[in-house]
Amino acid sequence: MNESAAARKAIKQKRKLSFYVKKYLMIFIGAIIASVGLELFLIPNQVIDGGVVGIAIMLSSITGMSFGMFVVLLNIPFLYLGGYKQIGKNFAIATMIAICFLSFWSGVFEPVGRVTEDPFLAAIFGGIIDGLGVGLIIRAGGSLDGTEIVAIIMDKRSVFSVGEVVMFINLFILSSAGLLYGWDKAMYSLVAYFVISKMIDVVIKGLDESYAVMIVTDEHEEVTSALNDRLGRGVTVLHGAGGYTGDKKEVLYCVVTRLEVDKLKEIVLEKDENAFVTINAVHDIVGGRFKKHAIH
Questions:
Q1: What is the tens place of the pLDDT at every residue in 68-127?
Q2: Contact 36, 107 (CB under 8 A)
């Protein structure tokens, strides 16, 4: 290996290390912030979030056992059956680390007690803080909620969208909170859920379920084959040319879900480290046969 090749390899390894340090630092900070919102505002006032976190809060209230323990235990089956097999190893690892961080920091902040006894203030400010933390974790490529994975799996096998499945699951969870804590607390929980959702959107700048990806690469056949085989995505090949050089270029176009973006980047850069990739949120899809597929 010559000096220039060794230098390129060292730079590549340095960039990779920097990427992972930033990724898991963001997850660490996000878990701290989310646990503050939960333990200092929502949980002490019997106001819950949706998804697995909401179920964990209710089980903790019923049994008197640790909220953090239930978050870990409830997410493991979702993570194994869906996160690892359907979404990919990187997502599963990031999510598991995020859940463990949340569990740890929840135990740290639990003895502090609540900041306010007003459930409405708790729903608003707890929702803002929790949503900020969850948004940071999502931006880093992780998650805290196994029900989102279930929604993606069900979306492949039913006529319902991811959003509709998530909404149905959370309506059931919030209704259960009404039976457990009373309907006033269930309504406060609905307020908190709405605030958390909006805050997540703010943090990750308009998160949408699907993204359009444009890839300019000299290895278009290998990239196309890898995306088809490993991501389960159809790819459209567009013929173009460089604006300055006039050299012919093949541009690949495909649409993926948010949870598949990291996997797509990994596949493309593995096949062509010089590829140029742009990713844009898709706010609506009309026609076509856009389906979610398992990642291998």
A1: 999 999 988 877 766 566 667 788 888 889 999 999 999 999 999 889 999 999 999 999
A2: no
Cα 241 from chain centre: 36
Residue 269 tokens read as 């850069």
Which residues lie closer than 8 Å to 24 by C-beta, 6 or more apart? 94, 97, 140
**CB-based contacts of 283, cutoff 8 Å, min separation 6:** 208
How far apart are alpha carbons 131 and 207 in whole angstroms? 13
Whether residue 47 contacts residue 125, with contact meaning beta carbons closer than 8 Å, is answered with no
Q: Which residues contact 159 (CB under 8 A, 6 or more apart)?
A: none
Q: Measuring CA to CA, how many Å separate 131 from each of 90, 138, 176, 211?
A: 22, 10, 22, 22
Paired strand residues for 276: 216
The secondary structure of the chain in percent helix, strand, coil, rounded to multiples of 5, reads 70, 10, 20
Q: Under a CB-based contact definition with an 8 Å cutoff, are residues 239 and 248 in contact? A: yes
Buried/exposed 174-191: b ≥16 CB within 10 Å, e otherwise: beebeeebeeebbbbbbb
Query: How many CA atoms lie within 13 Å of 277's alpha carbon, on the beta-carbon side?
Result: 23
Is the entire prediction scored with pTM above 0.85? no
The C-alpha angle with vertex 102 and arms to 48 and 208, in degrees rounded to 5, equals 70
Residue found under tokens 């209230």:
61
Residue pointed to by tokens 């909006």:
198
pLDDT tens readout for residues 218-229: 888 888 888 888
- Helix 119-139 × helix 183-203 angle, to 10°: 30
How far apart CA 99 and CA 254 sit, in angstroms, is 31
Q: Which residue has the tokens 């359907």?
A: 86
Bridge partners of 214, per DSSP, are: 253, 278
Site of tokens 């398992």: 294
Say how far apart CA 37 and CA 55 lie, in whole Å.
16
